[in-house]
Amino acid sequence: SVQAIELSGETPYEKLSEILKKLEDGVKDIFNGDKYAEYLACMSKFHNYSFRNSLLILMQKPDASMVAGFGAWRDNHKRTVKRGERGIKIIAPSSYKTKKQIEKINPATNKPIIGWDGKPLTEEKEVTIPTFRVATVFDLSQTEGEPLPSLGVDELTGNVADFKKFYAALEKISPMPIGYEDIDTGAKGYCNFEEQRIAVKNGMSEVQQLKTLIHEIAHAKLHNILKEKSTELTPEEQKNNRTMEVEAESVAYTVCQRYGIDTSDYSFGYVAGWSKDKELPELNASLDTIQKTANEIILGIDEYYKELAKDIEQTEQETDYTQLGF
Questions:
Q1: What is the structure's pLDDT at 309?
Q2: What is d(CA 304, CA 3) in angstroms, rounded to the nearest whole number?
Q3: Residue 112: strand, helix, or coil
Q4: Are 55 and 22 a contacting pair, CB within 8 Å?
Q5: Tally of CB atoms within 10 A around 163
Q6: pLDDT of residue 216 exceeding 60
Q7: C-alpha separations of 265 from 36, 124, 256, 287 in Å
Q8: Pairing of strands 197-201, 189-192
Q9: DSSP codes of every residue in 225-290
Q10: DSSP codes joined into one string, 302-321
Q11: How many helices (H) and strands (E) does the chain have?
Q12: How confident is the model over 65-91, as pLDDT tens digits?
């Protein structure tokens, strides 16, 4: 069932303001207790949604698996929303076009064209004003109709049975080359920003290798700056260091969740301490960063598997032609 958010506002603006206020409380709330891991698990299912919409889905239907609007279910998936189902409220873009007087620009000088009265000449142009509205979506479990096609990549990598393929996908999307070495510092891996390479500890299980790799790829994508040893950092820099670790670990957990890689050893108890001295804009910025980076990595892995499937299909077709005597 849906724990629907009741909005009392009458105008679209009032409704949007109300839902944004609920989101503020929701952001602060997820850093307490065990909710953070639950939120990341939700984000892994809705990785292409903004962090705000993932949080809104979690607040209203924690077990949601796939959401779409009433019309999208009908037109794209040939499914209908069951009678009496309550929708999940999210924020959707709602841009509108309007006409505006814009200064005429001289393409040669890139400066405004001045008229006889000394003022810049203007022309009427259509511009798009970006705005947002509260929209309603429904979960797959709230609909009935034709079955959905399976996603494929989830089954391929569920228990890391395809370790080599998954590793190859990560190697392809990594911004830095990956190497293995004996690490005796207690770390499972590290990102060497000075030499622009990722190191993974020798002798770890396949699952642990993948987790470490995803964590370090997140660092490489997000924190590509020279990092000194933590003992030499000032308190301010150490704070940044903690934020980097929270972001990389959160991205790794989200990606592992997406592909069914065991996440039972992840613990996020420390995020409550990390978040308590942060202002809301800082927390929002980190959540936004985590969502975008996890989404980028997931899309990269999915793309690799799609290409792989195409290659396999082509090879099979070529084999068929050979057998047919072509």
A1: 74
A2: 38
A3: strand
A4: no
A5: 15
A6: yes
A7: 14, 60, 12, 22
A8: antiparallel
A9: S----GGG--HHHHHHHHHHHHHHHHHHHHHHHHTT---TT---TTHHHHHTT--HHHHHHHHHHH
A10: HHHHHHHHHHHHHHHHHHHH
A11: 10, 12
A12: 899 999 999 999 999 999 999 999 999
Regarding beta strands 178-181 and 197-201, do their DSSP bridges make them parallel or antiparallel, or are they unpaired?
Answer: parallel
Chain mean pLDDT for the chain: 84
Q: Which residue has the tokens 């899309």?
A: 299
Q: How far is CA 149 from CA 73, 152, 200, 240, 260, in A?
A: 14, 9, 36, 43, 19
Q: Considering only CA atoms, give the Rg of the chain.
A: 25
Judge contact between 221 and 252, C-beta under 8 A: no
Percent of the chain with pLDDT over 90: 38
Which residues have CB under 8 Å from 170's CB, separation 6+?
A: 178, 210, 213, 214, 217, 301
Which of 168, 214, 165 has the alpha carbon at shortest distance from 188? 214
Rounded distance between C-alpha atoms, residue 209 and residue 154, angstroms: 19
Among 253, 248, 216, 215, CA closest to 34 = 253
pLDDT for 252 equals: 94
Is the Cβ–Cβ distance between 103 and 122 less than 8 Å?
Answer: yes
**Of 223, 216, 225, which is closest to residue 177 (Cα–Cα)?**
216
